[in-house]
Specification:
This protein has 26 helices and 24 strands. The longest helix is centred in the N-terminal third of the chain and has 20 residues. Strand 7 and strand 8 form a beta hairpin. By secondary structure, it is α/β, with parallel strands linked by helices. Among the domains are: about 260 residues, no CATH class; about 170 residues, no CATH class. Helices cover about 45% and strands about 15% of the residues. The protein binds NADPH dihydro-nicotinamide-adenine-dinucleotide phosphate, 2-oxoglutaric acid (AKG) and magnesium ion.
């Protein structure tokens, strides 16, 4: 790799709200760090940046950008890596298409996204876009397992300043519905590879007539890898969805589907497309061919479908047919009832890890088309992890809402390193073109796993390497030792994949003499026990696979803290480096909308503060930089100050926003450095800074707040204009002036 990252700490340029927040926060971080001899560089992993980097030959020399993600992907394998990773967009097709359109309008000659590539040239373009689509950054950077928890100060703050919780009543009609068979869960097969089996393999589909289609060649496995294969039957999925639509209507509640079309970027958009199609079945029965000819792909959602229909010659007739079907269907759970955006409009608008916890926090209520809250049928087709939500809903119906003032906490140790489990499944997931048998075949012809499938079934294989599994169990042991609390492996002995994992887990626990410190429970049982535990004010550690890592690090924080944005999220990289993620939430598109409408950014950077403190302390250890340690401890004190003094952003214009909260963070950080007695140089540097920040509080806040209430122009969405964005996010010349003294 050329162009080696030379900064001590790498901060990531991302998208949407966290990127806007960075424009305000980075000058503070960079100038404070500089005073301690610590350099903080930036690498671009934004959606727009990744698109630009993928098409250099289409662009002018000025427009071109290096492939920062590839560079970071190498860096995270180095022992010196120290990365602060903010959440980036995992793009669905509609988001990708919108970003390309914006870049084209700005003069970047990026090709269109080929929806249905036919020529080799189109296929090559599509392959480049596919590498950008969905969860394309996290699996590359997460070369370690996940340690997510609420810092003690953050948890204490949440207990003394509880967020509002909706009421749960036993008569709530809200339910979680999932398939009873023929899904990924029930069709799963799993094998741990012996040393003899390690090596190359291919995935092929053998048709009924014996002809063979190679779906994927050049798969390569190492010894000890757990290889899974499974499929979801398209027929079973469609009849499940049809039955759920009817059941929802009969119950008089809202229909909603919750998927992870971003992280599960191949399988879940297809499942989403089935939901769109089944919901509009009579329309597809009548106009299916015409819609297909017009390029409609239900996987992109109802929003894109409506736009495409509007441009068809038969628009009026088809629109009338759609309206008639919608009138006959149950009411849909809405993303934005004011704008008529439904759950089925865009595959990435409703993302299960955030959507279901928000509904549970609200007392089991979703928003209906009338703008009112209502009970909801939460449809989660695959039954692998749906029991977690089903059990949560059942538990809260029985016992009422959780009380954040007294609740304990559930931390997570998640398996994700080296594209573990579903993270690595994207290139080995296929929508089956015709009936037959899918099989994984070794070079010598031996068959590893096989399934009889039908056209349209979604078949996928995931694998998990030995070293990450062992690292994950060891991380669990050390976290349990540090906390001394209950710890549960959320694994189901009766599930093929989990049974293979347990063959690793048990001997490692036994060898470490800690078998009695851990329980092993199915996700459903673990959910119940964890909820009972935190209700009793005690703590638990959820040791889980990758998908549950994702789900649980939103579910519990959203109930305990009101949001997952405040989580400490550490990735202990397997080769010795550290990556510090900011919170457990996403890029909060709603927040950008508020900023552009009324110049108020309610993004909370507490996750960034926590990550920064950890990153500096890690740097102190890896580069023997004591100043960095002092800076890191001062970050912790500043974070505590932001919490104690209630300087976190609030929702409304005129209240503290993201920029003002960064001012307070800088003030408390400088004060902490000006009052420590370990390093006199730092003290001398920061004493006048702290004083200047204190003395100019009123001026700085006035400068920051003066523009609030009226629209803000960022000059773009996916690719904002740097000058305009800095004008909005660095609105206090006084603050910038003080920072420039460093
Ligand atoms: N690690 C990563 O890179 C991740 C990326 N994503 C990406 O983020 C995008 C949006 O995902 P989505 O599922 O909607 O989830 P988000 O977490 O972005 O948004 C859900 C809601 O959570 C609240 N929220 C999240 N972060 C903060 C914060 N720092 N401060 C205050 N409130 C916050 C907001 O609620 P309110 O409206 O109440 O303020 C927000 O509307 C997608 O493109 C997704 O792919 C998602 C998860 C992780
Ligand atoms: O990788 C992604 O797409 C999102 C991951 C995520 O939501 C998480 O890590 O919590
Ligand atoms: Mg998540």
């Amino acid at each position: 790799m050329t162009n080696k990252a030379t900064s001590d700490i790498i901060y990531t340029k991302v998208d949407e709200a966290p990127q806007l927040a960075s424009v305000s926060l980075l000058p503070v971080i960079q100038s404070f760090a500089k005073a301690a001899g610590v350099s903080v560089g930036v690498k671009d992993i934004s959606l727009a940046g990744r698109i630009i980097a993928a098409f250099p030959e289409n662009l002018t020399a000025e427009q071109r950008q290096p492939d920062d993600l590839a560079e970071l992907g190498e860096l995270v394998k180095q022992p010196t890596a120290n990365v602060i990773k903010l959440p980036n967009i995992s793009a669905s097709v509609p988001q990708l298409v919108a970003a390309v359109k914006e870049l084209q309008a700005k003069g970047y000659a990026i090709p269109d996204y080929p929806e249905d590539p036919s020529s080799d040239a189109e296929k090559a373009i599509r392959a480049r876009f596919d590498a950008i689509k969905g969860s394309a950054v996290n699996p590359v950077l997460r070369e370690g397992n996940s340690d997510r928890r609420a810092a003690v100060a953050v948890k204490n703050y949440a207990m003394s300043n509880p967020h509002s919780m909706g009421e749960w009543t036993p008569d709530s009609k809200t339910v979680v519905s999932t398939m009873s068979g023929n899904d990924f869960f029930s069709n799963e097969k799993s094998v741990t590879l012996t040393a003899e089996q390690a090596g190359p393999a291919r995935i092929e589909l053998v048709a009924k007539d014996g002809s063979v289609t190679v779906l994927k060649d050049g798969v390569s496995y190492t010894a000890g890898t757990v290889v899974d294969a499974t499929f979801m039957s398209a027929r079973a999925l469609d009849s499940f969805l049809a039955a759920q639509i009817d059941a929802t209507k009969a119950a008089g509640i809202l229909f909603s589907i919750h998927l992870k079309a971003t992280m599960m970027k191949v399988s879940d958009p297809i499942i989403f497309g089935h939901a769109v199609k089944v919901f509009l079945q009579p329309v597809f029965d009548t106009y299916g061919e015409k819609l297909a000819a017009a390029g409609v792909n239900p996987n992109s959602g109802l929003g894109a479908l409506l736009d495409q229909v509007a441009a068809m010659p038969e628009a009026k007739e088809i629109m009338a047919a759609i309206d008639a079907v919608m009138a006959d269907r149950p009411a849909l759970y809405m993303v934005n009832s004011d704008k008529g955006i439904t759950n089925l409009h865009v595959p990435s608008d409703v993302i299960i890890d955030a959507s279901i916890p928000a509904l549970i926090r609200a007392g089991g209520k979703g928003w209906g088309p009338d703008g009112k809250e209502a009970d909801t049928n939460c449809v989660i087709p695959d039954s692998s992890y749906a029991p977690v939500y089903d059990e949560s809903v059942a538990y809260f119906k029985e016992t009422g809402a959780l009380d954040p003032r007294t609740a304990g906490t559930v931390q997570n140790v998640g398996l994700m390193a080296q594209k573990a489990e579903e993270y690595g499944s994207h290139p080995t997931t296929f929508e089956i073109p015709h009936d037959g048998t899918v099989r994984i075949v070794f070079a010598n012809g031996d068959i590893l796993l096989e399934h009889a499938v039908e056209a349209g079934d979604i078949w996928r294989s995931a694998s998990t390497k030995k070293a990450p599994i062992e690292d994950w169990v060891k991380l669990a042991i050390s976290r349990q030792k540090a906390e001394g609390c209950q710890a549960i492996f959320w694994l189901d002995e009766a599930r093929a994949h989990d049974a293979e994992l347990l063959k690793y887990v048990r001997p490692i626990l036994a060898a470490a003499g800690v078998t009695d410190k851990f329980q092993i429970m199915t996700p459903r049982a673990a959910t119940r026990l964890s909820l009972e535990t935190i209700r009793a004010g005690k703590n638990s550690i959820a040791v889980s696979g990758n998908v549950l890592r994702d789900y649980l690090t939103d579910l519990f924080p959203i109930l305990e803290l009101g949001t997952s944005a405040k989580m400490l999220s550490i990735v202990k990289l397997m080769n010795g480096g550290g990556m510090f993620e900011t919170g457990a939430g996403g890029s909060a598109p709603k927040h950008v909308q508020q900023l552009t409408q009324e110049n108020h950014l309610r993004w909370d950077s507490l996750g960034e503060f926590c990550a920064l403190g950890e990153s500096l302390k890690f740097l102190a250890d890896t580069k023997a930089n004591e100043k960095a340690r002092i800076l890191g401890h001062a970050v912790d004190r500043a974070t505590q100050g932001v919490l104690d003094q209630n300087k976190s952003p609030r929702a409304k214009v005129g209240q503290t926003d993201n920029r003002a909260s960064h001012y307070y963070f800088a003030l408390y950080w400088a004060q902490a450095l000006a009052t420590q007695n370990e390093d006199s140089t730092l003290l001398a540097t920061f004493a006048p800074i702290a004083q200047a920040l204190e003395e100019n509080e009123t001026t700085i806040l006035e400068e920051l707040i003066s523009a609030e209430g009226s629209p803000a122009d960022l000059g773009g969405y996916y690719l904002t204009d740097q000058q305009k964005t800095e004008g909005v996010m660095r609105a206090s010349p006084t603050l910038l002036g003080i920072l420039s003294e460093l």
